[in-house]
Amino acid sequence: MDIKESPDHEFIDIHIERRRVIWIVALVLIGSLILVVLTVEKARELAERIVSPVEHIEPEPVDPDVPLIYRIKGYTAATAVAFEKFLDENDNRAKFEKLEHFLEINHVNDVVPPYELMRQGTDWQEIDEPPFSIPPEDTWETMVDTLKVLKNYIIPEIGPVIVLSGWRTARYNAKAGGARTSKHMHFCGLDMIPEDEYTRKQLLPKLRRIHKKVGRKWNMGLGIYSGIRFHVDTCGYRRW
After folding, report:
1. Are residues 12 and 80 in the same domain?
2. Which helix or strand (DSSP H or E) is residue 86 part of?
3. Is residue 206, in this structure, part of any structural domain at all?
4. pLDDT in tens, 84-117
C-alpha cells in the first residue's frame, strides 16, 4: 500500500527549507560585513603608518667626562665602553696591549675579560677617582697565580665571575678606606661576584671548601664581604 504525503506536508517542508536558506544567507552577509570592517580597519592603519611614520628620536649624547656605568647585583661598575674611553687617554692603549700580551703568554688571558682587572673599585664616583688604572709592569707576575686559582678552582665550582676591583693605586686605596697592606696595590687581589644567582648561604660553603682544599698550596687569601662579594689573592695564606 503506497503512502502519499498530503499537500499540507509539502507546504511545511517548503517553509522549513525557505527558513534554512534565509538563515544561511543572513550568516553569509554578517560574515561578509565583518570581513569588510576588518579589512577597512587594517587599510586605515597602513595608511596612517605611510602618511605619519614613527618619529625617529635621536639618543642623547653621552658626556665624555662622565664614565659609563651599569648596576650589577647592587654594585656600580664602569663598563667596557667606559674603558675604551680610558684607553684613548695618554699612552694607556699601548700599556694595556702589552699587559694583554703578557696574560696571553701565561695562558690566563681568558679567565675574565682583561679590562675588568683594571677596575679600581665600585666607589670611584664617591671618592672622585678614575674608575680604571693600569698597574706597573713589575707587578704583573703576581696576578698570574691569582687568575690560575680562578680558572682551575673558583670558576669550575661557582661559574663565571665579574671582577669589581682589581688593581688599585695607593691614592685610590687610601681614599676608599682600603687596608694599608691591600693586595690590590700589588696587583694580586681581586674582588668579585658570581655571575650566576647565589645567596650568601649558598656561596660561602663553596668558597671555604676551595680554600681548605688548595689554599695553602697556592698561598691563597680568601675574604668574604657582605652579600656575595668576595676577595681572592695568592699573596698570603689566610681567610677572613
Report:
1. no
2. helix 80-87
3. yes
4. 999 999 999 999 999 999 999 999 999 999 999 9
